[in-house]
From TrEMBL:
Gene3D superfamilies reported in the protein's UniProt record: Aspartate Aminotransferase, domain 1, Type I PLP-dependent aspartate aminotransferase-like (Major domain)
Keywords: Pyridoxal phosphate
Entries under InterPro entries matching the protein: DegT/StrS_aminotransferase, PyrdxlP-dep_Trfase, PyrdxlP-dep_Trfase_major, PyrdxlP-dep_Trfase_small
Organism encoding this protein: Tenacibaculum platacis
Protein known as: dTDP-4-amino-4,6-dideoxygalactose transaminase
Length: 304
C-alpha cells in the first residue's frame, strides 16, 4: 500500500539538541558512550590544539570523562593513516572513534574509513564543528556516524552555540525535540556558496605567492570551507600571523599549539604541520578587493 503522503516520522530523521558549544555536545556524546562502555577507549586524531584562553575543545571533554584514549596518525595534509586507524581499532574492544573534519573538509578516504567502521560495527562520531554546512548543504559528511556535533560560531557571526545531532533515530522513539534551525534566521545556502566562491578566488591568487602551500588545493563538490589553511615555508608562521593581523588582515592560527599528550607523537601533523599552518579568511563578509590586498601583502613578505 502507498499512502497519500509520507507518514513515517522517524524515516530519515535526525534528532537535534541545542548546546552552548560544540564542546558541550561532545561531552554529552562521551557520557552516552561511557554508560554503554565504562571501560572503553576513545581513539582521537593526532592533531588536537590547545590555547591558554580556551583549553582544548576536543581533548578537555575526553580528559574530564576519565576514559582511556589513544591517537591514530595523520599526515602533513591531515590525511588519516587508514592502516594505523584500523590497527588501533582492532587492538581495543568497543572503542569510540572520533573523525574530525578539519576546516570543513572531509578526509580523502572518508568513504573507505566510514564504510569499514560501519561494517565492523564500530561506534564513531563526526566532529563537524567546522563542517556543518558541508553536512547540511553539501551532504558530504555527518550522516554516517552515530552522532555529529557542530559549532555555530565557527561559520556564523555568533558568539556561542552548538548542536548534538543523533543519526539513525530508532523506530517509535518518543522525542519532543523540534529542529532548532527553524529559528535560525540565516540564508545558509548563500553563506555556503559565497564561502566556496571566496575559497576558489583566493586559491587562484595564492598561485603567484611562493612560500605558501595550500593544503586543500581542490574544493570538491559539497564542501563548505571554514577557512583556507596553508603551510608557510621559509618564514616564521607566528611572525606572519602577528604582522598580517596588525595590518588588519584577520589570519587565524588554529591548532598552533598541540596538547601535551602529542608533544612527542610521531605523527607529521602534530610534529611538523602544527608549526607551519596558518588559516586565511574566506567567510561571507570577505570581499574580493580585500583578498587582493591581503595577497599583495603576503607577496611582499614571503617573496621579498
Amino acid at each position: 500500500m502507498i499512502t497519500k503522503k509520507a507518514l513515517n516520522k522517524n524515516l530519515y530523521r535526525r534528532d537535534w539538541v541545542y548546546t552552548n558549544s560544540a564542546r558541550e555536545a561532545w561531552s554529552k556524546i562521551i557520557d552516552t558512550y561511557k554508560k554503554l562502555h565504562p571501560a572503553g577507549k576513545i581513539l582521537l586524531p593526532s592533531y588536537i590544539g590547545w590555547s591558554s584562553n580556551e583549553g582544548s575543545g576536543i581533548f578537555d571533554s575526553v580528559h574530564d570523562s576519565g576514559l582511556d584514549y589513544d591517537f591514530y596518525e595523520l599526515g602533513m595534509r591531515l590525511e588519516i593513516n587508514v592502516e594505523d586507524l584500523k590497527q588501533k581499532v582492532s587492538e581495543n574492544e568497543n572503542p569510540l572513534v572520533l573523525l574530525v573534519h578539519y576546516f570543513g573538509f572531509i578526509d580523502a578516504s572518508y568513504d573507505q574509513i566510514t564504510n569499514w567502521l560501519i561494517t565492523n560495527n564500530v561506534f564513531f562520531v563526526e566532529d563537524a564543528a567546522h563542517a556543518w554546512l558541508t553536512d547540511l548543504i553539501g551532504g558530504r559528511s555527518g550522516r554516517k556516524g552515530s552522532y555529529s556535533f557542530y559549532s555555530l560560531h565557527k561559520l556564523l557571526p555568533l558568539s556561542t552555540g552548538g548542536f548534538m545531532v543523533t543519526n539513525n533515530v530508532k523506530e517509535n522513539e518518543d522525542t519532543d525535540k523540534t529542529n532548532p534551525f527553524l529559528e535560525l534566521n540565516y540564508d545558509l545556502l548563500s553563506i555556503y556558496n559565497i564561502r566556496r566562491i571566496n575559497y576558489n578566488y583566493l586559491c587562484n591568487l595564492l598561485r603567484d605567492v611562493s612560500g605558501i602551500e595550500v593544503i586543500f588545493e581542490n574544493l570538491e563538490d559539497g564542501i563548505c570551507p571554514q577557512t583556507l589553511p596553508v603551510i608557510v615555508h621559509n618564514y616564521n608562521r607566528d611572525k606572519l600571523y602577528e604582522e598580517m593581523n596588525e595590518m588588519g588582515f584577520g589570519l587565524v592560527s588554529l591548532y598552533h599549539t598541540m596538547i601535551k599528550c602529542l608533544h612527542e607523537h610521531k605523527s607529521r601533523a602534530s610534529a611538523e604541520l602544527s608549526k607551519k599552518i596558518i588559516n586565511l579568511p574566506i567567510h561571507q563578509d570577505v570581499e574580493e578587493n580585500q583578498m587582493d590586498r591581503m595577497v599583495l601583502e603576503l607577496k611582499k613578505k614571503l617573496n621579498a
